[in-house]
Sequence to fold (280 residues):
Amino acid sequence: MKFEELKLAPELLAALTTCGYTEPTPIQAQAIPQLLAGRDLIGSAQTGTGKTAAFVLPALQRLAASGVRAGAGRHGVATPRILVLAPTRELAQQVAEQALRYGRSLRVSTVCIYGGAPYPVQNRDLARGADIIVATPGRLIDHLERGRIDLSALEMLVLDEADRMLDMGFVDDVERIAALAPKSRQTVLFSATFDTAIARLSARLMRDAVRIEVESDKSAPLAIEQRVHFADDHSHKHRILDYLLADVAMTQSIVFIATKRDAESLAQRLQGEGHAAAAL
Ligand code: AMP
Fold:
């Protein structure tokens, strides 16, 4: 299948080409048409399956279709049309990063909100207005209580890694947040597992949801590229390793090696070349 068959906006297709994606992953191929049709959806999919783009692309398409509202929120209050709830700061940042990447040419404003970070920057970002907010539940509630976010214009609510949010005790927060959004909104829930707690939550928050499940792929996640380099001898192998480690994009690396002695001598050699290296 091709992305073109999914009837995505030309700006989004161009962004996917720039990212180097050639075809939708199974969760994307199944979820995107349902979400574009406005259905509520429960997706069972793990990280690494491309699940983020499966909901971010339809969300962006929704914004593109009716014109992105740039600029400040009403009276300095953010009135997002899309809200993604995520259990952790790291996940929230990853979702926001993908929304920025695919939505760049649409000039979508995405604000990421999470706990443990100072308020002033988040307050300023919210006051400028947000089409998409990606947030952890606790900090979002803080901002809602302080009147910095208004969910009355929300069109789409996404619960990403809902099972982890429940495990972390966010169920009441999630329900409180959902209650502040219009009933007419589209609701999307992604979870790696589907148990009775998730079933109950989805029954309360969703209407006539379609359910999509993708086999968890036992092979490496999409984000991991695997390569084989053939080396002529030891010195060639070392030069290849030096070349790979010198890449500025390579901020942290693990090198596996056969013996303890080789691990120690390689670590020493790398230290001599200025790397902060240790043998384990
Ligand atoms: P996720 O499962 O959403 O965490 O995505 C895992 C990784 O796959 C992310 O780094 C995405 O940028 C990448 N990705 C998403 N969709 C595709 C696709 N159709 N083709 C290749 N890579 C993709």
Summary: The CA atoms of residues 23 and 55 lie 16 Å apart. The chain has a mean pLDDT of 92. Residues 21, 24-25, 28, 47-53, 221-223 surround adenosine monophosphate (CB under 6 Å).
